[in-house]
Amino acid sequence: MRSTRSTVTFSTPFTLSGYSDELPAGDYEILVEEELLQGLSFEAYRRTATYLTVRGRGRHAGRSERRAISDSDLPEALGRDQGATKKNDQSDAALSPQEDET
Known about the structure:
- By secondary structure, this protein is of the alpha+beta class.
- 17% of the residues lie in helices and 36% in strands.
- The protein has one helix and four strands, in the order ββββα.
- It has one helix spanning 73-89, and strands spanning 2-10, 26-36, 45-55, 64-69.
- The chain has a four-stranded antiparallel sheet, covered by helices on one side.
- The longest helix is centred in the C-terminal third of the chain and has 17 residues, at 73-89.
């Protein structure tokens, strides 16, 4: 077995298939577990599980939960996030410059 950790960043709140709650924008750790395939003349691994680590908020701060996700859940959620981000970048809204209070 081997485990690989990486971090993904969501710019907008998102949901994952199989879970009813909406997760806030931010950085999330991804853990991928793989097993070595035996009997081959070269080294190869097969993914056995993928997990998203969700950190607790509010009264659950300091706790974390590892949620099992499918191989397609993460790319789908990231795709929706990128679509939402592009849509927001093309809005007509603009920030007003701050006035100097001297």
